[in-house]
Amino acid sequence: NGTVPIAMGTDTAGSIRVPAALNGLVGFRSTSRRYSRDGVFPLALTLDSVGPLTRSVRDALVIDDLLCARSKPSSLIPRSLAGQRFLLDQAVLEDERVTPAVRDNLLRAVEALRASGALIEVKPCQAFQATLLLTQQQGWLGAAEAFALHQALLDSDAASQLDPRVRKRLEAARSMPASLLVNLYAARERLQEQLTLELDGALLITPTVAHVAPPLAPLLKDDDLFVQTNLATLRLTMPGSLLNMPGVSLPSGRDASGLPTGLLLSAPAGEDARLLRAALTVESLIAAP
């Protein structure tokens, strides 16, 4: 609302990218540990990432330069996308849970990239889809890490001061078997390698969130609806967190009621600088006139 030019956040499952998408902002989830975590309250140690919410990719680049202590600042001039490859995940695009406004705005953005000379490949990203399935069938690794980190609090009298919904989610991981955790860590490593090979220099395009911001009042009244909506809202950002993908959420447009939609550009771990450079140009091509 104009109070500050930049806000810093943490993203464990989508908590930078999602609010950026729902509010028409830019949100950057960096590769985990790209930035110092000094002073950051932890949730899940291998998934937590620090990053900015900004009005533009230019501002995100400036913050990245500052936090990485670069002596030479990054260029803030958009570069040509001619020859740059993008993979548009067809399976996500065709998912009926993606609302028409989110899909239409994404496709308009993709056509703008294609017109600029970018190479667009439309097919399922197998590593991304396998990660979606893994999370759905085996559970969320972040829940186990958060429980392990905060078990002492959960076992104390102070647990009663936690938000009941947060406490319930943390407690749900108490009974996760060790064998499942070992398998999840192994699967993550395998899928990270698969993703890098599969993208082969391309950047992944998906919606950030499949829907626009939902009305808050019904969620406050209905615990089951809250859980369903929470999972639906984080569904497309959780794979990037598990695979440690840097991701930039960009405003892609609005729905008929004026609510913002978001486009998510993601890359394999460690490719933050390349991702931000591409996002700078993508933003200039899809920005509303």
From TrEMBL:
InterPro entries linked: Amidase (IPR000120), Amidase_dom (IPR023631), AS_sf (IPR036928)
GO molecular function ontology, one term from the record: catalytic activity
Gene3D superfamilies membership: Amidase signature (AS) domain (3.90.1300.10)
Domain Amidase: 2-276
Record protein name field: Amidase family protein
Species in which this protein is naturally found: Pseudomonas syringae pv. coryli
